UniProtKB/TrEMBL annotation:
This is Putative cytochrome P450. One of its GO terms (molecular function) is steroid hydroxylase activity. It comes from the Bacteria. The keyword Phosphoprotein does not apply. Belongs to the cytochrome P450 family. The lineage of its organism: Bacteria, Bacillati, Actinomycetota, Actinomycetes, Kitasatosporales. InterPro entries: Cyt_P450, Cyt_P450_B, Cyt_P450_CS, Cyt_P450_sf. The keyword Chloroplast does not apply. Keywords: Heme, Iron, Metal-binding, Monooxygenase, Oxidoreductase. It comes from Actinacidiphila reveromycinica. One of its GO terms (biological process) is cholesterol catabolic process.
Length: 446
């Protein structure tokens, strides 16, 4: 009798573990092996993925130049790569190329993946805006855009400035410290938590969960990292469920409270869609803005001439943010799948191809940006970068990121005109997101 009572939970535990192993195998172990083999054999797509985690900036952008030189679409044994401005823009707007797929929809791997899937919040799985297509995407985005509008972002500007002023005032002049921990992470997490209606006492938890879940965008995670990320996502899912229940009982004037009640043609978002949007806002509005601020500080700290230009012409700060986004983007690459045979920038691409869309490559295209490997805050077409994507999946938080970047960087460098970088700066180990995990520096007033 004792065995009969305990066997079902034991079997459920075994089933969960088996499914987790299968998820890791199909989403990470197989791609990791394929990429490693491809890189060893000289495959450019394999080399690109390897460089994104292990190479230097110079090596990465040299490789992107090489791929771009092969034509608008480079077909490899692993899939395809687009790295020119024209091809990236066309790919992201092409209805035959869909987000949220990493294997052909009718393949054995797709069926295995569907069997092993679990109902936990994930930034690149449905119903995330990043992973759904029309008509679902059209309805979903229309509702979300009503809340996260340009007007709503403009209303956050004064509060963002106040937060930046308070954080800068707390940085001790002339003393070494890590600007990621003391500034770059705290500014966006505070703004995002206010957008999401998160009480001040809970913000440290959001910061920890966001950092733990950041690698979820990557393919090829080691088993231990994969389990840690899934655990962080499940913890965040549970916390967010409780948070939404509190907002429904006591709504505030935050944007998430508005999203809970938003409707279009008499219909609103499902609970899972609201949770997915909140998770995406956290990931896109926090993680990428940390990278934008850190990358910008590193670039400007190393370039006194560009800092001098910004002191003389503070009207250039908005353009400087766009140039930072172009030159050292917070997101290097995104993935798509061709669901039908299609044409991109005049080149034919078969159905069922995984397309690596190199945003960083488009941003260094010499046909669009003269002297593309030069960082120049006066660049007249810096805003033409594709760091926020293009087409139907254009970043919902682009206005917020630009605003936070301009306020955050200007406030820091006006208070500390000289920021001296110290040894020990470390890039984050993530492949898709590009930024600093630590940025040791001394902030000086002169």
């Amino acid at each position: 009798m004792h065995f009969a009572r305990t066997a079902p939970p034991a079997r459920r535990t075994l089933d969960r573990r088996v499914k987790q192993v299968v998820r890791w195998g199909t989403s990470h172990a197989l791609p990791r092996t394929a990429v490693a083999l491809g890189a060893r054999r000289g495959d450019l797509q394999g080399r690109l993925v390897a460089q994104m985690s292990n190479g230097t900036s110079a090596e990465l952008f040299t490789l992107l130049d090489e791929i771009r030189g092969k034509g608008p679409v480079f077909l490899s044994k692993l899939g395809a790569v687009v790295a020119s401005h024209e091809a990236v823009r066309e790919t992201l707007a092409n209805p035959d190329v869909e987000a949220g797929r990493f294997v052909p929809p009718d393949s054995v791997l797709a069926r295995i993946g569907a069997w092993s899937e679990i109902d936990v919040l994930h930034p690149v799985r449905p119903p995330s805006l990043l992973a759904v297509e029309p008509p679902q995407h059209t309805r979903y985005r229309k509702l979300v855009t009503k809340v996260f509008s340009a007007r709503a972002v403009a209303q956050l500007k004064d509060r963002t400035q106040q937060i930046a002023d308070e954080l800068v005032a707390a940085i001790p002049a002339g003393e070494p410290g890590d600007l990621i921990a003391s500034y770059c992470a705290l500014l966006p997490v505070t703004v995002i938590c206010e957008i999401l209606g998160v009480p001040p006492g809970e913000r440290h938890r959001v910061l920890e969960l966001g950092e733990a879940a950041a690698p979820s965008l990557d393919l090829g995670l080691p088993w231990r990292e994969f389990r840690r990320v899934e655990s962080a996502l499940a913890t965040f899912d549970r916390w967010l469920t409780g948070h939404l229940d509190r907002l429904r009982a006591q709504p505030g004037d935050d944007l998430l409270s508005q999203l809970v009640t938003a409707q279009e043609d008499g219909a609103g978002l499902t609970d899972q869609e609201v949770k997915s949007t909140a998770g995406l806002v956290l990931a896109a509005g926090f993680e990428t803005t940390v990278n934008l601020l850190g990358n910008g500080i590193a670039l400007l700290a190393a370039d006194p001439a560009q800092r001098a230009l910004l002191r003389e012409r503070p009207d250039l700060w908005d353009n400087a943010v766009n140039e930072i986004l172009r030159y050292d983007p917070p997101v290097l690459l995104t993935g798509r799948m061709t669901v039908r045979r299609t044409t991109i920038a005049g080149a034919g691409v078969p159905a069922g191809r995984l397309v690596s869309v190199a945003l960083a490559g488009a941003n260094r295209d010499p046909d669009v940006f003269p002297r593309p490997h030069v960082f120049d805050v006066t660049r007249d077409n810096a805003r033409d970068h594709l760091s926020f994507g293009a087409g139907r999946h254009y970043c919902l938080g682009a206005s917020l990121a630009r605003m936070e970047g301009a306020i955050g960087l200007r406030t820091l460098f006006e208070r500390f005109p000289a920021v001296e970088l110290r040894p020990g700066a470390r890039r984050r180990p993530t492949r898709i997101l590009r930024g600093y995990g630590t940025l040791p520096a001394v902030a000086r007033t002169r």
